[in-house]
Specification:
Layout lengths: L2 H19 L3 E9 L2 E9 L2 E10 L13 H18 L5 E10 L5 E6 L7
Parallel strand pairs: 3-4
Antiparallel strand pairs: 1-2, 2-3, 4-5
Length: 120
Amino acid sequence: MAEHLQTGANGEHAAYLHLVENGFRIVERNWRYKHLEVDLIMMDGNVLVFVEVKTLKGADYGLPFEAVNWQKEQRLDRAANIYIRQKGYEGEIRFDIISIFANGDGAFNIRHIKDAFWPE
């Protein structure tokens, strides 16, 4: 596996562990529909949370959460709407971002941004 893909996979696992440690329950990991993907779908109490995980090894390209641009938000919104229709979900939803710096020693600096955006 390419190094950047391994970094991303490790970051997603660290994000999953972080969320579970904070009381979230897993619903789906890497849920896909055609060309759309949601990294993690979790329950935070009675709220269905669509989580985008961004992991970087350094700040050369900005902060990890800054990579979630308008286009990525639109893809997440489309994916969430499809998921909700498929599952018949009628409750509250939220979009969170987990922004991770992968330190050279294998540790992760995790920033959880709750309710990071709301699609128009």
